[in-house]
Structure formats: structure tokens, C-alpha cells
Amino acid sequence: xxxxxxxxxxxxxxxxxxxxxxxxxxxxxxxxxxxxxxxxxxxxxxxxxxxxxxxxxxxxxxxxxxxxxxxxxxxxxxxxxxxxxxxxxxxxxxxxxxxxxxxxxxx
Length: 107
What we know:
With about 110 residues, the chain is of the alpha+beta class. Helices cover about 35% and strands about 30% of the residues.
């Protein structure tokens, strides 16, 4: 299942309002979604978009891809840098977990 973080359109004619959702890529744009992680009003700009950082980092850590607009929102919030930092920390931890003990003789 390819999971994407993208916008789902709400609002009325010529006054759009978007939810930031995590959805399977096969679902329609305004169809069902897995989880809502924020919202965005284009009239107020990217700076006023609201994103739940914990949920966004959780989904980015699990390999969710983001759309171009979401990339702009996440960049302005600093979430992409945080996700890369967390990913590099987990790879360092995994490297340290590898055992360096030599096998005992006779076993």
C-alpha cells in the first residue's frame, strides 16, 4: 500500500479549504483517508497552516510520501529537516546495536 500525505479539498465554490490527510494513493482526492493530521487555508498562506507535528513525523518515519504542496508546508514548518534528523539518528542506533562480541570457544 502506497501511503501519501496530501490535501483533501473542503469548502464552498471559490473559497477552498484543505485538510492535510494521510491516504492510500489509490483513494480519490476527496475520498476516504487514514488520518487527518492538519489543515490549510490558502487565503491565509503557508505560514498559517496547522500540522500535528507528532503525527506528521510518525507517518514520514513510516515511509509516507508527500505531495508538492505538502512539501512546501512541511518545509516552512521545519518538519522535513526534523524527519531527516530522526531518520539519521535511527540509522546510527541500528549501527550500534550490531553485536561486536566474538563467539565463545566450545559453543
